[in-house]
Amino acid sequence: MRDGALTRITALVRQDVRLLLRDPAPLVVRTVMPLLIMGFMQPLFRAALRAGGEAADANGAEQGVPGMAVMFLFFLVNVVGFAMFREHGWNTWDRLRASTARPVELLAARVVVPLAAAVLQLAVIFGAGGALFDLRVTGSLLALVVVALPLALCVVMVGMALVALCRTISQLSVIANILALVFAGLGGALTPQSAMPDWAEPFAPAVPSYWAMRGFNEVVLRGGGVADVLLPAGVLCAFTAGLTAVTLVFFRADHRKLSWS
């Protein structure tokens, strides 16, 4: 049974990979756009970091690269939703339901490719940030990975939870875009967390992007190691667990999704 489930999930993942390779434009845009914005915003980030006392010799990439990476990663939520809704738009969802694949297998298969895309997006942005904008990571690279992996999974599960809750792709798209911008603002992706307005500080810990930025800042700015990012990584895992529970509770394979308003 386990081998059969793995075979079915693998087949679905292969189909998602083929579709992604056929049209990689969304992934490319989400990776290139934050780097383009960094080119314009780096002087502002540099001034903000130095004014806030974060780092006297900061060049701005310490805030801009992780900030833009986190902000644009949450736009992946739309892609996660589209991957599910297109099955209904193509009238192939009923075929999947009629197959031997169970609903939990259909969900598990739809997580794999977006998760890989999220990890790849983070890796390319941080790598290009070092090459193009002189990002200096003073801490452990392994610690960056410890934060990045649960962040990527958390983003994917935001998308899966919205799939379970939303009936139309328009509903999901609007909510996903609003969440991406709110998370960017409250999480400290648009401005250093030390420079956030007073009214935002009480709400900031309630969003996963805050903990992602806290973990990245610990490594990039303060030279932290794995032990220093266990709390942010653990909170991101808790967010992921909660979103997974929402998905499992509210997802119904027989619910009809609309790929239009």
From TrEMBL:
It is found in: Cell membrane; Membrane. Pfam families: ABC2_membrane (PF01061). The chain crosses the membrane at residues 27-45, 65-85, 106-129, 141-165, 172-190, 229-251. It is a multi-pass membrane protein. Keywords: Antibiotic resistance, Cell membrane, Membrane, Transmembrane, Transmembrane helix, Transport. Its main location: membrane. PROSITE patterns: ABC_TM2 (PS51012). Residues 25-254 form the ABC transmembrane type-2 domain. GO terms for cellular component: ATP-binding cassette (ABC) transporter complex. Signal peptide: none annotated. InterPro entries: ABC2_TM, ABC2_TM_bact-type, ABC_2_transport, Nod_factor_ABC_transporter. One of its GO terms (biological process) is response to antibiotic. GO terms for molecular function: ABC-type transporter activity. Belongs to the ABC-2 integral membrane protein family. This is Transport permease protein. It comes from Streptomyces caelestis.
